[in-house]
Amino acid sequence: MCTFFLPNPFLNAEQKLQSPDWSRLSLWNELRGRYLGETVPQPIPEDDTVRSTQLASAETREIDGPDGLEPTRYGDWERKGRAIDF
Questions:
Q1: What count of Cα atoms within 13 Å lies in the side-chain half-sphere of residue 39?
Q2: pLDDT tens across 51-70, in order?
Q3: Which of 38, 65, 72, 73 is deepest in the core (most CB within 10 A)?
Q4: Are 39 and 27 in contact (CB under 8 A)?
Q5: How far is Cα 32 from Cα 77, in angstroms, rounded to an integer?
Q6: Residues 6 or more apart whose Cβ sits within 8 Å of residue 17
Q7: Secondary structure of 10-43 as H, E, C letters
Q8: Residue 76 has pLDDT above 60, yes or no
Q9: Residue 55 and residue 40: Cα distance in Å, rounded?
Q10: What torsion, rounded to 10 degrees, do the Cα atoms 11, 13, 17, 20 define?
Q11: In this structure, are residues 8 and 23 in contact, taking their beta carbons and an 8 Å threshold?
Q12: Could you give the maximum distance between any two Cα atoms of the chain, in Å?
């Protein structure tokens, strides 16, 4: 959920405007198009996607994790049957 504060088209910093300035709501049109699916999303280039997954797999690993398969997934607790609060 997001909250956006958009400029009021009926007021400026000093007083009430004679006619609404609808150009101040151009941000609204852009946001509405993006979040309601009215515009086509910009695809991520393929080389960036492949590179980011390679970096994530190479740099991340679990420290002091379970040996072998994940015990909560495969129905066995590795630490002598004790449930450990994650």
A1: 10
A2: 666 666 655 666 776 666 66
A3: 72
A4: no
A5: 48
A6: 9, 10, 11
A7: CECCCCECCCCCHHHHHHHHHHHHHHCCCCCCCC
A8: no
A9: 28
A10: -50
A11: no
A12: 76
Both ends of the chain: CA-CA distance in Å?
Answer: 27
- Kindly list the domain boundaries of the chain, sorted by start residue: 23-83
- Copy the structure tokens of residue 63: 């420290």
Q: Would you say the pTM of this structure is higher than 0.70?
A: no
- Asked whether 21 and 9 are in contact (CB, 8 A), the reply is yes
**Paired tokens of 19:** 């006619």
Query: What's the one-letter identity of residue 37?
Result: G
- The four Cα atoms 38, 44, 49, 50 give a dihedral, to 10 degrees, of 130
Q: What share of the chain is helix, strand, coil (3-state, %, to 5)?
A: 35, 0, 65
